[in-house]
Each structure stands twice: as C-alpha cells, then as structure tokens.
Specification:
The complex is a heterodimer of chains A (198) and B (155). By secondary structure, chain A is mainly beta. Chain A is built from one helix and 13 strands, in the order H-E-E-E-E-E-E-E-E-E-E-E-E-E. In chain A, strand 11 and strand 12 form a beta hairpin. The longest helix of chain A is centred in the N-terminal third of the chain and has 26 residues. Chain A is elongated and about 105 Å long. In chain B, helix 1 runs antiparallel to helix 2, helix 1 packs parallel to helix 3 and helix 2 packs antiparallel against helix 3. Chain B is mainly α and 155 residues long. Chain B has four helices and no strands. Chain B is rod-shaped, with a radius of gyration of 33 Å. Classes of the chains: A mainly beta (198), B mainly alpha (155).
Chain lengths: 198, 155
C-alpha cells in the first residue's frame, strides 16, 4: 500500500512538473530581438528623391516636407527625441556610439511611440536667406516653424548636410540618451542628407 | 545727507526689482519644468503598465494622451518668450493631462497585475490538478476495465 502511495506521489510530481512547464511556456511572452528603426521619407513616401529631382541644390524659399518614420520594437512604449543639426563636408559625423556634439543642435522633435508601432514626425524646412562671408555660405532657415541661423557654413554653398540623431529617454538616468539600449550597450542610429545651396 | 537717502532708496529699489524679477522668472520656468516632470512621471507609469502586460490598445490610448500632453508642453515652451500667460496655461494643461494619464496608468497596471496573477494561479492550479488526475489514471488504470464491464452488465 505504501509503495502504491509512493508511486502515485512520484507520478503526481512528474506530471505536475511537465504540465507546469507547459503553463509557464504558455504564459511567458515570446522572446524577441529589441530594436528601433527609422528613416527619412520624401514627400513621395520614398527613402530617396528628397528634392523632387536629381538636383540636390536647394534654392531660397523652396519648402521641403520630409517625414521621419520611427519604428519601436523595444517591447514597451518609448519616449523618443530626434535631434537635428546642420553640418558640412568636414564636420565630425555622429556614429553608432557618439552624437555629433561638436555641432550645436538646430532643434528637436519628441514623441511617445507604443511598442510595435511606427510614428511619423514632420520635418519641414526652408532656406530663408543666405550670407556669404569669405567664400563660405551661411544659411538662415526655418525648420518646423522655428527660425534658425546655424553657425556652420559651407564653401561655395556645397556639401551641406543635415544630421538626424535618435535619442531615447533613459528612465535610470532620468534624461534622453543617444541611441537606444541594446543587449550590452547603447546603439546610435544617425542619418544624414546631403544638399547644396549655391 | 540728501544724496545718502537717494542712494539708499536707489539700492532698495534695485534690490526689490531684482527679487521680484527673479521670483517671476523662476516661477514661469518652474511651471514648464513641472509640466515636463509630470509628463516623464506619466510616461514611466505607462511603461510600467506596458511591461506588466497591458494590451496594445490600452497602451495606444495612453500614448495618444501622452503625445497630447507633450504638444501642450512644447507650445508652453514656444510661447514662453512671447506670451507668459498663454505659456502658463499650456504648461498647466499639460501637467493636469499628465496627472490624469499617470492615475490611469497606475489603475491599468494594478488591474493587469491582478489579471496576470489570476491567470497564473488558474494555469498552475490546473497543471497541478491535471498532474494528480493523470497520476491517478495511471495507478488505477487496471480498474477501468472492470468498471467498464460492470457498467455494461447494468445496461
């Protein structure tokens, strides 16, 4: 009789272990690679043709409407900030580790993006006027309704470039941090668009 | 004597202006700072509800409200240099919207955690119950044949 009870108990423990494992598997969230992705879209909705033609020369008063599409696959809602700067051909680039901190930011746009969703941020810009000093062209612009005068110029108005940096809010440091948290370190995702204004 | 009195009066006026100006300026920026702090607090609570297992639809609604509060806060910052009263209105609206979102997020997180606990309790209880039933079935399987025969005889 005792042997039978022991056998019953062993079977009960074994079956419970198996079924509990099944329950745990069913209740757990499936593992997924966490990442953020983004791109700059032209008014035509493509990742190219930003100037509606082969010319990358931007004339005074021409309004350019771009859209920044940001996809969140981090597993939870994210507070995202896009920082934009104007550089030239010799400016230090932002990379996967560091932002282009040597160039002051022209502005930023923020948004909350739920997990597994893509959000759009408008980037509307126009060159209001230009100043030429010693062969260098300096621009006065309006970006998203705000007038800015970047101190970076370009020789002959050639090889300007917009840098776009993705920053995410870090709850631990209570501030925005460049990139998004990867498995071992933060991953920077800079984008850039070249243009001339001669 | 007359000069001393004037100098003293002048110093007092300058000090009064400085203190009132300082208080005024810091009061305005404080409202925008408060709105931003409330916004971040609401975001952290919504993220906690999300991690706890709230549905995508529920989080999307809260995210839309967060974005609205963010727009108010941005308007507040933009208007600060031009129209302080309007700036304060936007900052207050943002802060109050964020407070509502924070309260909703806390309720949602609590509800979700309760549901998750309930689901876990039901799932593991079922697993243990099924384990016992399976063990009983195996140990008592030899009796099933006899039981079936008896039932057939009765019919």
């Amino acid at each position: 009789m005792q042997r039978k009870i022991l056998f019953l108990f062993l079977l009960f423990a074994s079956f419970s272990l198996v079924y509990s494992s099944v329950a745990y598997y069913t209740l757990s969230r499936p593992p997924a690679q966490q990442f953020m992705a983004w791109g700059i879209f032209s008014p035509g909705g493509t990742l190219s043709n930003y100037f509606s033609g082969s010319e990358t020369n931007v004339t005074l008063g021409r309004v350019l409407n771009w859209h920044l599409a940001i996809t969140n696959q981090m597993g939870s809602i994210q507070y995202v900030q896009v920082v934009y700067r104007l550089g030239n051909g010799t400016s230090a680039d932002p990379n996967a580790t560091f932002p282009a901190s040597s160039i002051p930011q022209l502005g930023n746009s923020s948004i909350f993006i739920p997990n597994a969703q893509t959000a759009l941020l408008n980037f509307t810009w126009i060159i209001d006027s230009k100043e030429v000093r010693g062969g260098m062209v300096f621009l006065n612009m309006t970006i998203n309704g705000r007038q800015v005068s970047p101190f970076v110029g370009a020789l002959g108005g050639q090889k300007f470039r917009f840098f776009f940096e993705l920053w995410t809010y870090n709850v631990e440091s209570n501030s925005f941090q460049y990139g998004y948290p990867g498995q071992n370190s933060w991953i920077g995702l800079p984008l850039q668009v070249w243009f001339n204004s001669s | 004597m007359h000069f001393r009195f004037r100098a003293l009066l002048g110093i007092l006026l300058v000090l009064t202006f400085c203190f009132s100006g300082g208080e005024y300026a810091s009061g305005q920026s404080k409202q925008i700072d408060d709105a931003q702090n409330q916004l971040v607090r609401a975001f952290v609570l919504v993220q906690q509800a999300d991690v706890a297992g709230a549905s995508q639809g529920q989080i999307s609604v809260l995210a839309n409200n967060l974005n609205l509060a963010l727009r108010y806060r941005e308007n507040s910052s933009q208007l600060f240099a031009k129209n302080v009263t309007a700036s304060n209105l936007y900052a207050n609206e943002s802060a109050s919207q964020s407070s509502v979102i924070a309260a909703q997020a806390v309720n949602l997180a609590n509800t979700v955690r309760e549901q998750v606990s309930l689901h876990q309790a039901v799932a593991y209880s079922t697993a243990v119950g099924a384990g016992f039933a399976s063990a009983l079935l195996v140990t008592e399987s030899h009796r099933i044949g006899g039981l079936a025969r008896r039932l057939r005889l009765r019919v």
